[in-house]
Amino acid sequence: xxxxxxxxxFRIFLIIILIGIISSELxxxxxxxxxxxxxxxxxxxxxxxxxxxxxxxxxxYNYLVxxxxxxxxxxxxxxxxxxxxxxxxxDSNFKVKQDTNGISVGKYMIADEVMQCYKGKTVSxxxxxxxxxxxxxxxRNINSQDVVGVILxxxxxxxxxxxxxxxxxxxxxxxxxxxxxIIAAAYFTxxxxxxxxxxxxTKIRDAASYEDTSIVASEYQETEEIASAINELQSKLxxxxxxxxxxxxxVSHELKTPMTSIKVLADSLNMQExxxxxxxxxxxxxxxxxxxxxxxxxxxLLTLVKMDNKDGGLxxxxxxxxxxxxxxxxxxxxxxxxxxxxxxxxxxxEVTASVDEVKMTLALTNLIENGIKxxxxxxxxxxxxxxxxxxxxxxISDSGIGIPEDAREHIFERFYRVDKSHSRxxxxxxxxxxxxxxxxxxxxxxxxxESVMGEGTTxxxxxxxxxxx
Length: 469
Fold this sequence. Notes:
Blueprint: H1 2-5, H2 8-60, H3 70-82, E1 86-91, E2 96-99, H4 112-118, E3 123-127, E4 132-140, E5 147-156, H5 158-207, H6 221-271, H7 277-308, E6 317-320, H8 321-338, E7 341-347, E8 352-355, H9 357-373, E9 379-387, E10 391-398, H10 420-426, H11 432-442, E11 446-452, E12 456-464
Parallel strand pairs: 7-9
Antiparallel strand pairs: 1-2, 1-5, 3-4, 4-5, 6-8, 9-10, 10-12, 11-12
Helix pairs in contact: 2-5, 5-6, 6-7, 7-11, 8-9, 9-11
């Protein structure tokens, strides 16, 4: 039950009910108010018309001078009885000539309503406390239209109040019935509106068990967007899971290969009881190389794992890129000479950038060292440095064997090797380029490759001069 009160469905249900209650109550009050206004206007108009007819009778019988006319008095009493109120007739001197209640005859009445009538206006006021409508009508001379007296009448609103109460009772009953219908409508509307979300939730749970399950919720634009986003996320998670499985498989294979070689070599030695010392030395040399290979793979894997954590632990500092490249080339000089490869460094300007020098050195070393290892004899590796006001550009090109077109899009994948036999021969692990790409991405940079088989390969590295974390 607590979950229902916290649910989106309950909020929709509550909003619809509140809107229904407020709307129905406003309608009910407006209906009653409109009825009262109309009823009072109709009664006021009706009484005013009769009083104007009565004023003509008063003038015809000269009642303002002689108030003894039985015809007029009977008419006044009839009107007083009909409207449940009181009728007063006043002459031009504010003197009360007749009062159907017999209280104010002979007295003078000076009130605001009376004064307005003597100015020629018809006035009406509602006394809500006592339940009366007070109406004042001027008596005009037929010939001159001068005001010669005033008729003042108090009309009871008891019949209007009675009808109002009956109407109020009926409207309350209708409102209760309407509220029951609104509650039912709110329940089903909230159910229908949240049904796509419920279906999405169910399909998300199913998607956890079924790999190819996709979510479809096209009832609303919002649910369609949610379903689309979830499908995209599910697709990415599927790709990530496949990549993880492939990575684990590759790691197992790569780590298992040197261990298998070591075991084979060791078993071979054990089988040779009187093997000469030269054979032992040769086998131990092979075992040492396999151990070095295993260490290299583990070291590269640890490097990748460290860089996969958050920001890769970058230590950003201002570095002279020229000096950094010169140190790399100097360190790789002996390897290049051994492989009969010339190293050429070209710099268009002095460049200083904010980088992690250790990691950037590792990335550039991988690229230049690959250019040396996968080159021809004799060959060359050229490093060109340039920069604009925003980015550093380093182009590393070689005269090597090149990369096949179908392999270029895979070279940054972990453990991928174009020529596996040649890579193993030179000690490649298939992790150098993935590490390089990861380092450049951490620096908000990019790397592109162009290659022609038999002619060479060019890597273009680009990263911001100022690191933006």
